Amino acid sequence: MVFDKKHLLLLLDRPREPVFMGKGRVVFDVPDNYLTDRYRPIGPEIQNRFGENAEERIPVRSIALPDLRIPMSLGRQEQFSLFIPRHRKIAARLIDIFMGKHDNSGSGRSLYSALLSPIVE
Fold it and tell me: Sorted alphabetically, which Gene3D superfamilies does this protein's record hold (predicted)?
């Protein structure tokens, strides 16, 4: 698989849908431990169902998840505004997570590149 920065844009396509749903003809292969409790028991069926017509499958690596307590304090259906101080704190924490997450090798790769870069075996 070729490392393509456009994969990040696909994550922003229909952001209210689960990431395992198809984004056009592209599907993210999400590890079961990233699925919510609602979808975890049927993880393999979901991956197969939504990936049937995929032209490209993007494997998502399983990494140690960062502390998401602050960002997850905002409900999924709540409105967001940078004019609200608590929301600014949430946004700042997400930026820190995405820009500063280190992989196990100690190199300063971003969370995006740690998750979506080609898996070398």
Answer: Hemocyanin, N-terminal domain
pLDDT score, position 65: 80
Question: Is residue 55 within 8 Å of 25, Cβ to Cβ?
Answer: yes
Residue 107 lies in a domain: no
Please report the pLDDT score of residue 51 as a whole number: 67
The whole model's pTM is what? 0.62
**What's the CATH number where 22 sits?**
1.20.1370.10
> Read out DSSP for 75-101?
-TTS---TTSHHHHHHHHHHHHHHHH-
In which element (H, E) is residue 113 found? helix 111-116
Domain count, the chain: 1
Domain that includes residue 14, residue range: 1-64
pLDDT for 120 equals 44
